[in-house]
Design goal:
The chain is α/β, with parallel strands linked by helices. The protein has a single domain (about 15-195), classed as Rossmann fold (3-Layer(aba) Sandwich). The protein is about 30% helix and about 20% strand. β6 (about 95-100), α4 (about 105-115) and β7 (about 115-120) form a beta-alpha-beta unit. The longest helix is centred in the N-terminal third of the chain and has 13 residues, at about 25-35.
């Protein structure tokens, strides 16, 4: 994704945004960025317990969350939120995960929780605004398939199904262990998380 289209418009003046980050400094930066985007109603939380309390008491239009929280797992928090489709008005709202750990396994984990997008730290306002604009226009339906609840996550080039060796010489054999890998660039994250047309 390139820079923000100067003709694009997004109005956050009536949006209610929840920002979750275990670092006070990062949380303060996120608040300033969102207020700079014109969001008038910005709520903040530093942990899982505080986030869960806010999610039960208020409806939001967007959640931006760092999954590495001191009192629990932010990935599990997002997964639980997506599974609360019967009782929570927040189950279907856009969720953007932000993290300084941007390994392929982290991005895949974020996608598999039902998050809409993943942004690598350090965050720049331009990149975050691009992703907010993307999720605001994202028309993917929510699906419930097995343990997954969230936006339809079908992507090209996912490799062979689990338990299959695949049909190409380049397909990796399964099962694979967890790799120790470097952080991905934001462009690599975008290619992994951005939905692609499925050619049938």
């Amino acid at each position: 994704m390139s820079g923000v289209d100067p003709n694009a418009r997004i109005n956050l003046s009536k949006a209610s945004v929840l920002l979750v980050d275990g670092s006070q400094h990062s949380l303060d930066m996120l608040v300033q960025i969102m207020k700079g985007f014109g969001a008038a109603e910005v709520h903040r939380a530093q942990g899982v317990a505080e986030t869960e309390r806010l999610l039960k008491s208020k409806s939001f239009d967007l959640i931006v969350i760092d999954p590495n929280l001191a009192d629990g797992d932010g990935y599990a928090l997002v997964r639980d939120l997506r599974h609360s489709t019967n009782g929570s008005p927040n189950a279907f709202i856009p969720v953007i995960l932000v993290s300084g750990h941007a390994r392929a396994s982290d991005v895949a984990k974020a996608r598999d929780t039902g998050a809409n997008y993943f942004v690598a730290k350090p965050i720049t306002p331009n990149v975050l605004l691009q992703r907010i604009m993307f999720v605001s226009r994202d028309k993917r339906p929510f699906v419930e398939v097995g343990a997954y609840v969230g936006p339809d996550r079908r992507f090209k080039f996912e490799g062979p199904p689990v338990g299959s060796d695949g049909r190409r010489n380049s397909d990796l054999k399964s099962p694979l262990g967890t790799a120790d890998e470097p952080n991905m660039s934001q462009n690599e994250i975008d290619m992994m998380i951005k939905p692609q047309r499925v050619m049938l």
